[in-house]
């Protein structure tokens, strides 16, 4: 009978997730994942990574992406990369031809690579995505720091390990939240049709139901 028959331990599972969900911020529009800070060596190429989650497949006609650069927290945002039915490089003088889109919207990845990093490239990089019919716009924010020499190796290893495990944990939590949200949404959509089905099943259910759960 239960539409959730395919979930293991449905009650326990859903209780745990509901708890997690209630701890999360209320506006679970679109989750955008981007590192808060990226350090890049002067003259190197660096990938500014931005990915997102959505319940919906990306349709090129509707999907919208804006990458903007902000030199200081007070400065206005300069649009340098945009997706509007296709990727468009705004070729800002500031970046010349050093910006290359290296993401794949179909895989929820809108990262780009900045080549030959200059000291003047320091600042904030904003990634905005909108994937209708998701109504909320997602926003990721990366602060780029440009280094002129390699940082000492020994402490960065620990930092990477700690960062990776914290990041991994967050990614799992976010993934779980998304699954719950999408399952809920789909369930909501099915509610009406399910009500009708239940009525019909009730009529033919007299002989017991040996094949419960098969489709
Ligand atoms: C950064 O690298 C460029 C060459 O890629 C070099 O000319 C410049 O001096 C470097 N700047 C610093 C501060 O190291
Ligand atoms: C930001 O702008 C406000 C006015 O718009 C100004 O008072 C403030 O000093 C500025 N801050 C910085 C860090 O430039
Ligand atoms: C990107 O910017 C355009 C205006 O230049 C705006 O219409 C669009 O909604 C923006 N998209 C996102 C995802 O912010």
Pick out its properties.
alpha+beta; binds 2-acetamido-2-deoxy-beta-D-glucopyranose; 215 residues; 3-stranded antiparallel beta sheet; membrane; disordered N terminus; 2 helices; 6-stranded mixed beta sheet
Describe the structure.
The protein has a domain at 28-149: Immunoglobulin-like (Sandwich), CATH 2.60.40.10. It is built from 2 helices and 11 strands, in the order αβββββββββββα. It has helices spanning 10-23, 153-204; strands at residues 32-33, 37-41, 46-48, 51-52, 64-70, 78-84, 87-89, 99-101, 112-114, 123-130, 138-147. The longest helix is centred in the last third of the chain and has 52 residues, at 153-204. The N and C termini lie close together (12 Å). The structure holds 2-acetamido-2-deoxy-beta-D-glucopyranose (3 copies). One 2-acetamido-2-deoxy-beta-D-glucopyranose is lined by residues 64-66, 128-130, 137.
**What topology, given as strand order, has the largest sheet?**
2-11-10-5-6-7
Superfamily (CATH H level) name of the domain at 28-149: Immunoglobulins
Gyration radius (Cα, Å) is 23 Å
Count of discrete alpha- or pi-helical segments spanning 4 or more residues:
2
Kindly name the structural category: alpha+beta
**What does the overall shape look like?**
globular
> Can you tell me the residue ranges where pLDDT is under 50 for at least 5 consecutive residues?
1-7, 199-210
Tell me the helix content.
25-40%
Ligands, ions, cofactors: 2-acetamido-2-deoxy-beta-D-glucopyranose
Summarize the helix and strand pattern as letters: HEEEEEEEEEEEH
The CATH topology name of the domain at 28-149 reads Immunoglobulin-like
CATH architecture of the domain at 28-149: Sandwich
Strand tally is 11
Give the strand content.
Answer: 15-25%
Rounded mean pLDDT score: 80
- Give the end-to-end Cα distance, rounded to a whole number of Å: 12 Å
CATH class of the domain at 28-149, named Mainly Beta
Largest sheet: 6 strands, mixed
Region (Disordered): 188-215
Keywords: Disulfide bond, Glycoprotein, Immunoglobulin domain, Membrane, Signal, Transmembrane, Transmembrane helix
GO cellular component, one term: plasma membrane
Protein name: Ig-like domain-containing protein
